[in-house]
Write a structure and sequence with these properties.
- The chain has a three-stranded parallel β-sheet with strand order 1-2-3, with helices on one face.
- Helix 1 runs parallel beside helix 2.
- It has about 80 residues and is an alpha/beta fold.
Length: about 80
């Protein structure tokens, strides 16, 4: 039997809590066993972290990266290293 590959959903955020909540809520409602959500947060310092914690407590994320500095290339550095 062939193993199914999972669809990876990459989300990159920085200090936009309302937009992030809308995005994560949509993904959460549509998520299936065939998908994995990976979130990168570029040093948010506002309510964005509370949004992330809320969805993390619902086990939405396969991986969660919380960076302490904003780096436009962090996604590539993390994924391609």
């Amino acid at each position: 039997m062939m193993s199914e590959k999972k669809i990876k959903i990459f989300i990159i955020s920085k200090d936009r809590p309302i937009y992030l909540w809308n995005c994560l809520d949509s993904v959460y409602r549509l998520k299936s066993d065939h998908s994995e959500v990976i979130l990168f947060d570029n040093a948010s310092n506002n309510e964005t972290l509370e949004v992330i914690k809320s969805f993390d407590s619902r086990n939405l994320f396969k991986k969660l990266y919380l960076f302490d500095k904003n780096d436009k290339d962090i996604f590539h550095k993390t994924i391609l290293h």
